[in-house]
Amino acid sequence: MVKRIVLASPRGYCAGVARAVDTVEEALAVWGPPIYVRKQIVHNVHVVRDLECRGAIFVDTEEDVPLGARVVFSAHGVAPTVHEHAQARGLQTIDAVCPLVAKVHAEARHYAERDYSIIFIGHAGHEEVEGTTGEAPDAILLVESVEDAERVAPPQTERLAYLTQTTLSLDETDEIVEVLRARFPGIESPKREDICYATTNRQRAVKAMLGEIDLLLVIGSANSSNSNRLVDVARSRGVAAYLIDDESEIEDGWLANVESVGITAGASAPEVLVRRVVSWFRKRGVGELHTRTAVSEDVSFRLPAELQRQAAVS
Asked: What's the CA gap between 166 and 267, in Å, rounded?
């Protein structure tokens, strides 16, 4: 029987996600609906549904946006070709790319302009990977695993660098980097770690609580890379863990012989979902609630330039 809940801190929204969601909300407030959004603004079904109710229209590509309409690009970033297509269609664009993702884009351009080969550690098909690869499509080789790292064959090694997707597992990425450095001793790395502070902090918070819980529930959507990595962190250390969108997905069978449940949320999950899960346990008689803080966060990002300019003339 569950007796206690342990909340991880930090958890939930990161600064980049908060900025992206605020961007769509502010655009709706300033210009009114509809506001088009290319892809999911962030990877969370609840956030997307809420914004749809307010007048946001989510589309797969910029080609689905009516000529001349206003469109927001998601926090995951887009390739330069997307900007070109949008301009050709006369779209009024608002780029909500996370500044930390934009940093990786800049690094890709930096190395490509100097004729480097770039090994990019990430997950194929993820929007962030597509956007970064689009910055230097002829220079980037994608590596997803240690096995990939052991067999990747760059066209040259005299000028070789690696970059990483911002939402990866720290431990898994370290293993891949270790293989790359062993194979290519001269490989260059970014001046600062690409994996974002929020991903790092949320994984550290999970690690810090694993010794006192029997089960971890990670609130986040299935397409959220950083949320899935939190599940991986717990399972790799022998603690059962499940990814849930909300309290409706909790299965009673998971709770058998469980006394202490840890709860965290991926960087795209709003705090209201955490409160709902806690309430679910409270209604079932769980009285103890503790918070374990691994590190404090105070990062924030300004809204995109397009909204700042609009605010200046309003």
From this structure: 12
Overall size of the chain counted in residues:
314
Question: Measured in Å, how far apart are the chain's first and last C-alpha atoms?
Answer: 57
Please state the pTM of the whole predicted model: 0.93
Fold type of domain 100-183: Cobalt-precorrin-4 Transmethylase; domain 1 (3.40.1010)
Amino acid occupying residue 130 = E
Torsion, Cα 125 126 129 130, to 10 degrees, reads: 60
Q: Which amino acid is at 275?
A: R
Domain boundaries, the chain: 4-13+197-293, 15-98+301-313, 100-183
The question of whether 128 is a catalytic residue gets the answer yes
Mind listing the pLDDT tens digit for each residue in 285-303? 999 999 999 999 999 999 9
Residues 8/292, Cβ–Cβ less than 8 Å: yes
Distance CA 61, CA 82 (A): 8
- The runs of H, that is alpha helices, within 62-215 are 80-88, 99-113, 127-135, 146-151, 170-183, 197-209
Can you tell me the distance from the alpha carbon of 294 to that of 274, in angstroms, rounded to the nearest whole number?
18
* Rg of the chain on CA atoms, in Å: 21
CATH number for the segment(s) 4-13+197-293: 3.40.1010.20
Instruction: Kindly list the distances between the CA atom of residue 215 and the CA atoms of 10, 40, 247, 300, in Å, as whole numbers in the listed order.
Output: 18, 30, 15, 31
Asked if residue 259 lies in contact with residue 215, where contact means CB atoms within 8 angstroms, the answer is no
Q: How far out from the chain centre does Cα 142 lie?
A: 18
Per the structure block, which two tokens stand in for 129?
A: 């990977």
Residue pLDDT, tens place only, 186-216: 999 987 778 899 999 999 999 999 999 999 9
Say which of 26, 107, 127, 128 is annotated catalytic: 128
Adjacency order of strands within the sheet including 35-38: 56-59, 35-38, 70-73, 92-95
Separation between Cα atoms, residue 201 and residue 135, nearest integer Å: 28
